C-alpha cells in the first residue's frame, strides 16, 4: 500500500516533467538543427549521410540533441524569447584591405542583412533578396537598387 506523500511526489514529478516537455514543443530545436546541418556537411553523398545518421541514432547523438532542446533550450526560448543555442555563427564577415568590413547575416525569411563598414564613413545597411529572376538590395529607407543577371560582370 502506497502512502499519499509518495503518490503526491509522483504527481508533482510528472507535472513538472510534462510542463518542461510542453513548453519545449514551441521552440526552434536549434541544437537538433545544428546536428542535422553537420550531418549534411559530412559528405554530399546521400548514402554517406544516411550512414552517419544511422550511427548518430545508435550512439545516440540525434536523440540527445532533441531531448536537450526539449528540456532546456526550447524551454528557455519559450519563456525568454531567445534560444541559448542560437548564435550569430551564421553571420559572415569579410575584412577589406582598407580596414573596413562587410557582414552578411541570413534571415529566416530568406533575405540577407548586409552591413558595409568603412573607416571614417557611416555604415551602409542593406537587405538583399531574390525577387523572381533578379536580386534586389534595399536600403534602410526601402529604396531599391536592382541587379539583373544580365548586369552581372562577366569573367
**Uncertain runs:** none
| Distance linking N and C termini | 83 Å
Using the alpha-carbon principal axes, give the shape: elongated
> What is the number of helical segments per DSSP (H or I, 4+ residues)?
4
Strand % is 15-25%
Helix content: 40-55%
Total separate domains: 2
Q: Oligomeric status of the shown chains? A: single chain
> Element order, helices and strands?
HHHHEEEEEE
Spatially, the strands of the biggest sheet line up as 1-2-3-4-5-6
Question: What structural class do the secondary elements suggest?
Answer: alpha+beta
Q: What is the β-strand count?
A: 6
- Characterize the largest beta sheet: strand count, sense, and whether it forms a barrel: 6 strands, antiparallel
Overall pLDDT = 76
Give the C-alpha Rg.
Answer: 23 Å
Account of the 3D structure:
By secondary structure, the protein is of the alpha+beta class. It contains 4 helices and 6 strands; from the N terminus they run ααααββββββ. It has helices at 4-24, 30-42, 46-58, 61-80, and strands at residues 92-95, 101-106, 112-117, 124-131, 134-139, 144-147. A 6-stranded antiparallel β-sheet has the order 1-2-3-4-5-6, with no helix packed on it. Strand 1 (92-95) and strand 2 form a beta hairpin. The longest helix has 21 residues, at 4-24.
List the helices and strands and how they pair.
Elements (H helix, E strand, L loop, with lengths): L3 H21 L5 H13 L3 H13 L2 H20 L11 E4 L5 E6 L5 E6 L6 E8 L2 E6 L4 E4 L8
Antiparallel strand pairs: 1-2, 2-3, 3-4, 4-5, 5-6
Helix pairs in contact: 1-4, 2-3, 2-4
Feature tags:
single chain, 6 strands, alpha+beta, elongated, 155 residues, 4 helices
